[in-house]
Description:
Number of strands of chain B: 10
Strand order of the largest sheet of chain B: 6-7-8-3-9-10
Distance between the termini of chain B: 8 Å
CATH class of the domain at 20-113 and 179-255 in chain B: Alpha Beta
CATH topology of the domain at 20-113 and 179-255 in chain B: Rossmann fold
Helix content of chain A: 55-70%
Protein name (chain B): ABC transporter ATP-binding protein
Bound molecules: adenosine-5'-diphosphate, magnesium ion
GO molecular function, one term (chain B): ATP binding
Largest interface: A-B, 25 and 29 residues
Oligomer: heterodimer
Keywords (chain B): ATP-binding, Nucleotide-binding, Transport
InterPro entries (chain B): AAA+_ATPase (IPR003593), ABC_transporter-like_ATP-bd (IPR003439), ABC_transpr_LolD-like (IPR015854), MacB-like_ATP-bd (IPR017911), P-loop_NTPase (IPR027417)
Number of helices of chain B: 9
Largest sheet of chain B: 6 strands, mixed
Strand order of the largest sheet of chain A: 4-5-10-7-9-8
Amino acid sequence: MMTKVTLRNLTAHKLRLALTALSVVLGVAMVAGTFIFTDSMSKQFDDLFAGIGKNVAVDVRAKQAVQSGSDEQVSSRPPVPAALADELRKVEGVKDVVGNVGGYAAVIGKNGKTVATLGPPQMGMNWVNGGDYDIQSGRAPQGPSEVAIDEATMKKAGYGLGDRARILLQGPTQTMTVVGVIKTGNMMGATVTAFDTATAQRLLLKPGYFNDIQLVSSGVGETVLRDRVARTLPGDVEAITGSALRDELKDDIQQLLSFLQVLLLVFGLIAVFVGAFIIFNTFSMLVAQRTRELALLRAIGASRRQVTRAVMGEALGVGIVGSTIGLLAGVGLAAGLQALMSDGSEGSTGLTFTVTPVIWSYAVGVTITLISAYFPSRRAAKIAPVAAMRDDVALPQRSLRRRAGIGSALTVLGAGLVVAGIADAGPEPLLLLGIGVGMVFIGVAVLAPILSKPVIRVLGGVFPRLFGTPGRLARENALRNPRRTAATASALMIGLALVSAINVVNSSAVASIGRSVDRQFGADYMIISETQGGFSPDAIKAVGQAPGVDQATAMYVGNINVNGKRASVLSGDMAGITEGAKLKMLSGSTDLGADGLLVDEDTAKSNDYKVGSTLPAQFTDGARQQLRVAGIYEKNDVIGSRLLSEQAYLAHTAKPLAFMGMVQVATPGTASKQAVEGALRDYPNLQVQDRSEVKESFQKQLDQVVVFFTILLAMSIIIAAVGVINTLALSVVERTREIGLLRAVGVSRRQLRRMIRLESVVIAVFGALLGIGIGVALGAAVQNGLADQGLDILKIPVVTLVVYVVLGGVIGMLAALWPAWRAGRMDVLKAIATE
Amino acid sequence: MKNTAPTSAEGLEQPGAGPLAAQVREISKIYGTGDAEVIALDHVTVGIPKSRFTAIMGPSGSGKSTLMHCMAGLDSIDSGQVFLGDVELSRLDDKRLTRLRRDKVGFVFQAFNLVPTLTALENITLPMDIAGRKPDTNWLDHVIDTVGLRPRLKHRPSELSGGQQQRVACARALAGRPEIIFADEPTGNLDSRSGAEILSFLRNSVQEMGQTIVMVTHDPAAAAYSDEVLFLTDGRIVDQMVEPTAEKVLERMKGFDLPGVTAS
Ligand SMILES: Nc1ncnc2c1ncn2[C@@H]1O[C@H](COP(=O)(O)OP(=O)(O)O)[C@@H](O)[C@H]1O
Ligand SMILES: [Mg+2]
């Protein structure tokens, strides 16, 4: 019997439930899409790597003395001498020996633009016959001025066989003849450029060296061969099996993919969380509208449990339908993402389906619907049977004091977790932060009905004056059911809170960096590379020769082990650094010699370093050396915490690459800048920036991050907009009679539509204000927590936040279009006659 | 044998009754199609004289509300013509119809007359506020005092009794000095004392202010407050009565009580 009631209700309220299901659909789609997309990527990489190094039995390479940082793309292994290859050839069971050279090389297209995407690498290598790739057309490169390029990059660059192509390198740009097209399959945006071995060594690495040496077996098993080879190797070189090598490659990619997966998943779950508010609200409204019917059921003998179950049954239906459609939409989303990432070569399409997205979709979609509908269903069960007989029925409302208590407690507790999370407490600070933010959202949502009254009074205060009676009615309608208004606004609050927090952190970062640049950047120009990795210090040398240039300093970055722990160090000519970074010594001197190390005051303090302390250190080439603390400097944002003697750095680095150059000129101005740029003619990827351009380029980079996160949060905001539509549509149905009355006494359709639009706007703006309030607090907390890491200025982007409030209003306006249209179309008479 | 009762416009016009505030000519209204077809109004012709209190009586389902809705421009008709003053309604689009209702017509319904978010006073001035017209304060004060709502003006409908709510509705209908007021069973939900208050109030507004009122009711006691009663059965006007009393109306009603009596 109750099942029948549930089913009837599901079919009777198709439209409302469809809108509710939509909020489940969108969140689930993001979750499902994330899994399908990353699964597909993972499968494609597997296919890609199935071919790579398939003939390799054993790989010989230098040992990694210093772990490379997780954010560095370049291997920190030093190269091995080519002579080792000849030794290895003599080992029994080795059929063939291949030396590999790899490094940075990119193709500059016919239009002068470098073919490169932000993520995937631009790989340069030595061409090996019978290696990982085949030549599709043309032939293998030979000699110092021939190159082969992969198919997709050829197309993008607009080159054909025989064309002269400009190749961007870490050293000077080369012009070479394209003699071959490499068949690679889908590289997902990565580019491949190949030279003959000697040329590759010269351009990418170091003449006479390989990155690693791969051995082909004459039939001996790979472990046996590895052990045999290992016995002949010097101490700083190691041998691993081909299988182990392939696994390492896969692991790297898997790590990258799982990071991407977690990132996307987080935003998917945020969207689902926002959807929960909508579901909660819709079910609350459905229960309220059916109070009399439910009371009747109770009056004729249905138990509380049965009423609860009837409502939960509806939720289950909505959850299942929503999850199913969400899963399908996720397939579409994944296909879209893939199309976006595709480089146009064949094999770049095709999705991989596993059971994971299916399980996640239903688990997330159904669970969230049931949890959200649980509270309304409990309220439904509390309806007294006598309500069936009464005319003016109202659901029992929980006391305001209790609401205030629960809401404040949740908010405070959540805020505590946020602070703890930012302070890096516990084993999982990010998780702590996430849970804390979630609790704050729920806490504020619980408080929102109390807040809504005064806030909406104020916001809607001008309505009567501006819009007359429809304005006043709109304000009163928004005030009428604070719980409903609050839940609707809260859904919008979440997305806007996160977007505002990101903006607050962003503008604080821009301000902090700007101040650091002003205070500590003493160079007239900075030279940076637009492409990945570093660039050849020869470029800086060339700048040093330019007219009007007093001093050009190449800055290096690297990792060393100090006391057995990895530490990141900067290095370069001390005279240039002292001036360019306005280095202020607190003690000791900048005379570093071959073993000197400078540390900043914080590092000195926390490690108890004194001028003259000696520290055991190991370099990436495996060499060990005692370093001497030569001096301590004042905290410096340009330099960071450690400065290593340039002499020591260069001595232990096979192919030194600058990450930045600092230039002092006699008279700053257009002429001197042009002189510097002129010296860099061969390095089109290098940019010369003055102080304000440095700030601008930081801001641009940060802005890109903000845009990225904003796009990911857009789904949450869209779901919230669906929630506003839902609330208004339901309110219109609920107020059918009242709307009829208004129409009967002469309210025009236009006035009616305006009334609904204004109600929507005021609710949305309320949500936007709540969100921006939380966002500013959250952003300020993050800034405060990171103040000692350089984020020392709190700057609230007032203009941007005002834009978000306006945007909230616009969302409200758009969300109201359809409900308002429906209300306007309502038959006056039916509206009056509704029983 | 159809329409034995005097239903022609000429037949209804009383000598000395003056001009008409509203009239319908040969209007029909049919709901549904096929088996479900209901003829709610069957070629009805009626004139509503100005400054008079006209009651429309009839058993439940006889078409009273439908007739009123059609006359007031709330509902469309399938054939015939409706005039409010000298404006023919079928020519008006929704915009003009809305403006006409707002400026020239007042309504009192059986229930749910008021906007719950507005106070009593705001409800009373609602049609004028919508129109952007300033209420005539003297007149407004007069109306409020007549209905005796002065101490309740700041209250919301939920804080008012049923009788008080209906008085607010009447005050709203009168406040704009409409050319005609339509009231559909305005006392249907009230106890007899509150009902009597409302009815004498309507009656007085006709006598003292010259207001035109059309009231739909099925209660003979309510009809007795009017100047003239029109009897409706099965969508047709079957009789009329001037200067009715409750007894006379009840007597007449008995004859119509059973559907189909007049048709046989
Ligand atoms: N919207 C409608 N749809 C179908 N039939 C209707 C509708 N409104 C009224 N009716 C029918 O028209 C007839 C007249 O109704 P109504 O004017 O409401 O009667 P009264 O007000 O006299 O009780 C009744 O038979 C009723 O069932
Ligand atoms: Mg009726």
